[in-house]
Specification:
This protein is α+β, with helices and mostly antiparallel strands and 130 residues long. The strands form two sheets. It has a two-stranded antiparallel sheet with strand order 1-2. The radius of gyration is 30 Å and the shape is rod-shaped. The termini are far apart. 0% of the residues are buried.
């Protein structure tokens, strides 16, 4: 059941050293189990957020695709207008790190800044604003 036996001279000192090694192995095992549990919990939290974001993104992409089709039908190609008005990024991602049980995990934060003050291009049901 166990591996090959160690060749130990049967003395009290050898017994004490073996007990210390066993205690160290048990402590290390329990620490690794705690670390595993903490990382599993963090992973499931991240996975839940990713799933929620994917579901929201599906709805947003459907709405955006429909809006783009409406604008393209009403005015034609507007890509040059969008590029002309977009001078600075209004959506930025900041990267940081988080320590979970001795493991460094990357974290990302969304930083949304206010637009340029120009009226955005939009299509309303009662009229078109470009």
């Amino acid at each position: 059941m166990s591996g090959p036996r160690e060749a130990i001279f049967p003395t009290r000192m050898a017994l004490t050293n073996t007990k210390l090694r066993l205690k160290g192995a048990q402590t290390g095992h329990s620490l690794l189990a705690k670390k595993r549990d903490a990382l599993t919990t963090r992973f499931r939290t991240i996975l839940r957020k990713v799933d929620e974001a994917k579901r929201k993104m599906g709805k947003v992409m459907q709405l955006a695709s429909f809006s783009l089709a409406e604008v393209t039908y009403a005015t034609g190609d507007i890509s040059y207008l969008v590029q002309e008005q977009a001078k600075n990024a209004s959506f930025r991602v900041k990267a940081a790190s988080e320590n979970v049980s001795g493991v460094v995990l990357p974290t990302f934060e969304v930083d949304r800044t206010a637009g340029s003050g120009k009226r955005p291009l939009s299509v309303h049901s009662f009229g078109y604003h470009l």
